[in-house]
Specification:
two-stranded antiparallel ribbon
Length: about 120
């Protein structure tokens, strides 16, 4: 008997689509799935899961996450707002650490980042 080989997703878009399919069964925090289980169900590595989550978010998908719960699709505006606050807090913590490493005030760093992004847009636009 011949065994069919399943094609694993190869491109970032294919990986994101595969992850979106699995996450569609995990709507709401109460149905969250840990990264290791999400990787197993999607056929991706945990690292590929993180990258695919970022790709989905960049495309506007409301993929929520929390270290204590795992990943899930927002089932309500409240869940989305909770996720937004968690991501904002994590981002601000990272930016604060970067500012201290560079020995500059956070507003100065943010101004530098804004200037850098404006310069990149000008060069590529």
């Amino acid at each position: 008997m011949t065994q069919l080989a399943l094609a694993l997703p190869a491109t970032p878009a294919e990986k994101a689509a595969q992850l979106a399919l699995v996450l569609s069964r995990h709507r709401g925090r109460e149905r969250a799935i840990r990264a290791v289980d999400l990787a197993r169900e999607s056929g991706l590595t945990e690292r590929a899961v993180r990258h695919a989550v970022s790709d989905l978010r960049m495309d506007g998908a409301a993929v929520c996450a929390h270290p204590a719960a795992g990943y899930w699709m927002a089932a309500s505006p409240e869940e989305f707002l909770d996720c937004e606050e968690f991501l904002r807090s994590r981002a601000m913590h990272s930016l604060t650490m970067l500012a201290r490493m560079k020995r500059v005030a956070l507003p100065v760093l943010l101004g530098q980042l804004a200037l850098t992004e404006t310069t990149k847009e000008t060069q590529h636009g």
